[in-house]
Each structure stands twice: as C-alpha cells, then as structure tokens.
Amino acid sequence: MAGRRPTQKLAPNPGEPSNGPLTAEELQLAVRNHSMPLEALRNDVTPPGLHYLLDHFDIPAVDGESWHLRLGGAVRQSLELNLRALRRAPSISVPVTLECAGNGRSLLKPRPLSQPWMLEAVGTAVWTGVPLAYLLARAGVDEDAVEVSFTGADAGIQGGVHQQYARSLPIDEALRPDVVLAYRMNGTELPLQHGYPLRLVVPGWYGMASVKWLSSIKVLTKPFHGFQQSVAYRYQQDADDAGTPVTWMKVRSLMVPPGIPDFFSRSRFLPAGPVMLTGRAWSGRGAVQRVEVGIDGKWVAAQLDHPAAPFAWSAWSMPWVADPGHHELSCRATDASGATQPLEPVWNYQGMGNNVVQRIKVTVEKAA
Amino acid sequence: MAGRRPTQKLAPNPGEPSNGPLTAEELQLAVRNHSMPLEALRNDVTPPGLHYLLDHFDIPAVDGESWHLRLGGAVRQSLELNLRALRRAPSISVPVTLECAGNGRSLLKPRPLSQPWMLEAVGTAVWTGVPLAYLLARAGVDEDAVEVSFTGADAGIQGGVHQQYARSLPIDEALRPDVVLAYRMNGTELPLQHGYPLRLVVPGWYGMASVKWLSSIKVLTKPFHGFQQSVAYRYQQDADDAGTPVTWMKVRSLMVPPGIPDFFSRSRFLPAGPVMLTGRAWSGRGAVQRVEVGIDGKWVAAQLDHPAAPFAWSAWSMPWVADPGHHELSCRATDASGATQPLEPVWNYQGMGNNVVQRIKVTVEKAA
Q: Under a CB-based contact definition with an 8 Å cutoff, are residues B199 and B153 in contact?
C-alpha cells in the first residue's frame, strides 16, 4: 500500500486511522447507510433502495408545500422559488453515476474511522430538474464571483462543529450546462432520503458535491470555508496536512460477482463451463477507454459499451470458460486521461478516493 | 442477560456466537443489507430505500414477461399464472409492518455471527396483490393438507446447503384472508430488491416468512423441512437444541431520536425546553395496548394512536420538557396478550426476536 502511515494512537478519534477491529460506531453507520449490492450492476439505472446512500446527519423532515429555495449573494437579483415554480422552469434529465468519495475506505490499513464502505458505494440514476446555470443566469452572477455555495436542511455535529451540511463549487463548475437542481430521480418524485424536495447533482464529481435537501444557494466572491469543504473531503497524509480537495471521481470498474454466494462469507461458487463476466466502469475525468479483466492475475481486454451519457457508467463484458478450481477475478479500467486503477490501495488520512481494483475469489465446481 | 451461554469456540462458524470484534463477513452483510434510519419512524408508510432489507443470497434477475407462478401439490387442480393473469385477479391492499427476526442481534453477548442488525430492521409498507386464499381456493386444497411451501428464485449456499430460499406456512395461516401475493409496494411496481415480480407478505410474522421472488407454491400433506424452516430461524439455546420455530413478531416500540446527531457517534444533542417525543409500536400477537416512555428510568404512559391496519404499527407521542444535562430515553410497549418488552436482551443461539427496549443517550444544552 502506497502513502505515508501515521503512528497509531491509543484512542483514535473519528477520522483518525485505526488498526483495531471495527467499532460499534462504524457498525451504526453501516446499518444506517447502504451501498449498492454488486448484482445491481446489471441495471443501467439503479432504483432507489439499491443506489448507494450516505446521509451525514438525519434525513430532515421538509414540507414540500411550504419549502422554498433562496438564491442570493453576489447576484444582480436574489431569487426565491417554491417547488411549483421550479417545476415550471426549463428542465433537463441527466443520467449520472455517483460514487461516495469514501468508497473503499474499509480496505485501507490503518483504517480511517468513518462510514466503513467496502467497494459498492455507487449508483447510476437519471436526475431531472432545472439547470443550475439557468437560475444563475436569471439571478445575474456578479463579475467577481469565484464560487457558489449550497446549504442543505440537514443539521448535526461533525468534528465538534455544529453545522448544516454545506459545500461549494468553483463558479466555472456551477455554470456547466449539466449541473442540475433535481426534483425527480428515475422519473419519479425525489425520495426523502435522496434530498426531497430538491438536491444538487454535479456529474463527474464524487457524491459529497451533490448537496441534498437544498435550502439556499449563495454566489460568493471569496472561497467557501465550511467544514465539509475545508476539513472533511480532503486528500491528506496526516491530520496536520492541509491536503488537497476531493473533487472528480477517479476511474473505477466493478464486476457482478458470478455464480451464487455463500450467505455469510459471500464466497462465490459456479459450475465449470462458459460464463459471461459483466460489470460497469466510470470516471469523472473523461471517458473510460479500456477495461481489462484479470483471471488469476492475467489481464485480458473486455468488450466496452458506450455510456448512456458522458458521466454515466459504461457496461463491459468478457466471456470466460471457467475450469474447476479456485480462481481470483478482477477488473481494471483506464480513462481518457490515461489514469488507471491501482492494484494496491493508495492510503490517505481520510480514506478518500480508494479506487483499488476489485478482487473476487470464486470456486468453480465440476459440472455434474 | 437471560438465557444459557455456550462456551466460546476458537474459530466460530457462521451462526455460532462470538465475543470477539465485528468480522469482515458481518461488515459485508451490513453494507449489502440495510435497516431503516430511525428518523423514518416519522412516516406512516416507509418508502423503498428506507424500509429494511435483508436478502439472503443475490437479488435474482427475473424477467417479468416470461415469469410465471406455479401452484401445485395437494390440490385438485394445479395452476400456472403469469403476471398479467395475477394482475387481473381480485386484489387487496394491506398496510403491514415487517421486522427482521434477527433485529437486535448485534446487541447480544456473545453475538451470533450473521447479519449484525442493531434495532432498526423494520418498515411499514402497503402491499397490493392477490389474496393467497383466493388462489388456494381456485386450486382446491386437499383435505389432508397441513402446510403450504413457498420457493423463491434466489439461490445460494447456507450452512453448507445449496438451496433456493424456501419457507412454509401452516395451512390455517396460508388461508388467512390478509396473506397476500404482492406485485405492488406502496402503490408502485414491486422493487427488484423487494421480490419483483411477486412476493408473499404474511402480516404479523417476522419477515423471513414473506418469501420474495416467488417461483412456486406447493400444498403439502407433511411438514416442510427446508433449511430456512428446520435449521435457520429457530429459537435455540445451543447448536444441539432442536428449538422452536420463529413465527410471530414480538411486541416492540422504537423512538425517533430527538435533536441532532453527531456524525460518527450518533450521540444526540438538543436544546433545553419542550420537545415532543414520538415513535411507533407494533406486535404480531395482538394490538399494542400501551407504550411507556422512560426518562432516566422513570416510566410515563405515552399517547397511543390507532394503527392503519391490524398488523401496521401504531404512532405514539409524549411531550417532554428537557432540562440541561445528560439523559437516557427509552420506550417500552405492551400488547393485548400482556407481553411487554424486556429491559435486558434475552439471549438465544441464532439471535432471534431480541425485542429489548431501545435506549437513547441525549445531551440537553442550555438554550442560548
């Protein structure tokens, strides 16, 4: 594993790495939030309930009837819009693959103490709503604007800081035509847990940018320094490292585990013979250009389909003739920037952006 | 904690209890499946994605167009129906609270190794479909029938046994008018992960009875001895105890944790002053008759609403004037059978039916 490791402390605080066993706090987060069972990679579009979900605080109870969005700050004309007004505005529908920035965290050693994701914190949905750029144009962004901040209705404490969840985007990102204020997911009303009545969706960025339960948007002439921007979601080597911000999703591929599982171990079993290995691949940094499948460490190029949209995942497939015995299957994607997935996790202090290749152990049984 | 404890073994097998830390296998199950975040107790009806979900094996890919249900065994006339035919048959809509039989398992010491639920493996949905009794009447059940078995399309290995998930019901239960073969959940098509295209829903029973992805139904003249009936889902004191079957849900209440959470610890913080404590209570054994709320161990009766249906949860509420300091809140329900929730977990070998009272630690802060 690459990256510098801190010396282990006796009583790790949240966010500090641990070599110890899973804690009750991590279990509590794991049962609250959920990832996408890997067999759901079969679906082009992930239904609510299978799409990954990470809610930092509680899901807020927002009354859609009385709710309204405020858009202000460095603009010519502040706006205040209710849900009806937003639904009347021009709309777009964008298929987007969203992945949690902490996906893969629990595979790191030492393990940052937070939501203990394995590899499945991902999903692809079609988000329908108003282009953010349209509302910003209506409000008239001042020339000296540098960022736009987004504040959700979800409140809590993190790192000792009372806060409503809030993040910002650089002004150029906020003005992209595909950044959407979504009130529908997969053609139906936005589910409570995905940000009802309105959420931001930023295609290509890790999920933390796509603020849920939006209550206000503010155009800023100075960079935003909220907790989720300046403290959380940074690539750091240790607690004192200012680090760099987490932004775009790194390239990743995942495979549908073939065969059938053992209930407890999730080990896989399949009969000898031909089997089609399938999965999905995505990147926030440019199109996926290549997916390779590893059979016992030998890499072979997979067939790669075109994605439904620039920031939706691509399906891939590769036929395999499984011979009896134990095998390790893996997959590895490369994107247009030339970036590829590492064979070993790259460690960082918060456990962000671990796009290590997936490995699946399978037992192939002689056909009866 | 009541109940006999087995001596600890060196290498616990799945299902065997452990005093050790959480295992990677339990984490894998915890990130795959999901419970209902407690703030979703606010909703009368739980949306997919918040409703608890336990899928033993993989979610099977069932083609609704070519799928059909076979009903046979000890009947005058076997039936074979496709989804279109089922949708044309008489239908009922039943609001049902479903809870996993293993809810509360991770609070037991030693801890049975399986899905490590805390307290939130529950949900209430409106299930729409064909009454099972209607189809059984159409087929004509033989006079010597004793049980009806249900087999799902989900396949895997558990306890070393290759199997499709299958369970049975006593014939009298199967003929209840409210047992439904559901093709809709909360008014929309049954989600993939909840059993598309058709599942059984048995009001009042723990969730394991409500077989998903139904492929066949068989009327039996002898008791069914499948793995999920004879080995799993039993109240046992040790591995050699034949035990008794898990059937009806025990009485339970849960509270919406008041205030706001700390992200990692989920500790709760709220300002001093009046706050309405709210929650839900249910039982498979008869109506909930009383809910008491404990404030620092002192029990006070809560206001209890009527449920939407005999086997749907009841809302309860109790106003509290929170004074500054640390407090422990809890809730306890009693049903028409006189059964009440225990203050300490009652241990059993598989970790079934742990309806221990919920305890929430809150910090009340002086209002600013």
A: no
